[in-house]
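Weekly puzzle thread! Below is a chain. First person to post its structure in token form gets bragging rights.
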Amino acid sequence: MIRSRLAREKANNILSMYKISEAPIDVEFIATQLGFEVHPFDFPNEISAAIKIIDSLKVIAFNSKHPKTRQRFSIAHELGHYLSGHEDFDEEKRAFVDPSKKYLSPQFKQEEEADEFAAELLMPESLLTLDVFENHLDLSELAEKYEVSEQAMTIQLVNLKLPFNHKND
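Winning reply:
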């Protein structure tokens, strides 16, 4: 179920602004175009990424120990927070660190919105529709092409109500 059309529209506007029309989406390019430095960091496993903004310095740090697919999604997710104006920052109002998702948390809606943005940024509906109906790619091929996990791809395909097949062995 698509929860935030606005988040998806923002993602598509970014893709259009930078004339990105094929997968895999270069999320680090987008982040740098938006003024961010992007760096790996040795976070504990439960932290995927964080944003730090100090004056004109904007940094996204991602967990260097996570798989590349998760790192890409985490960077896109943090961009979703930034572009959506989420303000769950520290006491100095300059850093955002994702807490564990808790359904009763007031930040849960923001987490869902950032996930929607990240999903659409990395797996745009327009490109997926083409790959599903015209190129007949299965789930594994789609995940590989878009450089996302099969879990993230499955969620996106279900949310978009696009049919998909598992690879026939």
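Puzzle host: Confirmed. Bonus trivia for everyone else. Residues 5-159 form one domain.
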